């Protein structure tokens, strides 16, 4: 790679405004060189506000721009495979937003394309790189709760006004996300559990649509088994009156309690004491994820979220939803 790695973004929408886009300009040796959006006026506006030299309304133009060294795909998941294959053909490293693709089968195709070109493929499961979640893994790896036994997650949300009004939302369109917000949100937590406790060897679930306000599933229960022997259970519901996000990781000598999305203190509870630690997330939440991509591309480390790990998470999602 060049000493300065120039990135292009396909799909410079809301997720790139604060969560991810600025991280590419704040990371040493990275530069945000070009952005693409189908609406050329919106692409131009984004480029102006974020000091990006080049903008396009055609993804092919961005992918094949000789000034672009690597590509970040930040579109909805139904187009990830289409664009990723073009990036692989162009011979450039790629980062894909999560979930990685529509299903595990597409993830396998995507990985094969990059493996054949010996190119890195990253997936934006950025919690694997955040200090907050590194602290949880450190407590676990240091044996502070003894042998891990069981993990349990409750994630509930109140109905979205957009969904109640039955306005279109790709996140609840079954053609793009069979599990609705489960695909979009639960994937983050399950991916972190896999990093922390090992790959999942078997998973199953019940998925239904209770509200009837969109085509995707909105209520899911799940259970699974990690290759470390840890069992897992979870309840997800996106149409109830109370918002909750609580994970309890039980061990033989204590437990760790945390939230996947809330910035609440993480708790280490043992028979002797309770310790609470607050670790603030960065302003641009993908900052550490992007920084780890830099270290990977420079040959200094293995990035924790790759096409391989992202595909495994998609396999778990498919198994829970009963689509695989």
Instruction: Tell me the Rg in angstroms.
Output: 20 Å
Q: Report the mean per-residue pLDDT as an integer.
A: 97
Quaternary: single chain
Class from secondary-structure proportions: alpha/beta
What is the 3D shape?
globular
Give the strand tally: 14
Q: What is the count of helical runs?
A: 11
Termini separation comes to: 38 Å
| Portion in strands | 25-35%
Spatial arrangement of strands, main beta sheet: 8-9-10-7-11-12-13-14
Please provide the ordered H/E string of secondary-structure elements: EHHEHEHEHEHEHEHHEEEEEEEHH
Mind describing the biggest β-sheet? 8 strands, mixed
> Which regions are unreliable across 5 or more consecutive residues at pLDDT < 50?
none
Helix content: 25-40%
Any overview of this molecule?
This protein is α/β, with parallel strands linked by helices. The chain has helices spanning 14-17, 21-26, 40-49, 59-63, 80-89, 104-116, 131-141, 161-164, 181-197, 287-297, 307-321, and strands at residues 5-10, 30-36, 54-56, 70-73, 94-96, 121-123, 148-156, 200-208, 219-226, 231-237, 244-251, 254-258, 266-270, 274-277. β5 (94-96), α6 and β6 (121-123) form a beta-alpha-beta unit. α5 packs parallel to α6, α6 (104-116) runs antiparallel to α11 (307-321) and α9 packs across α11. The chain is globular.
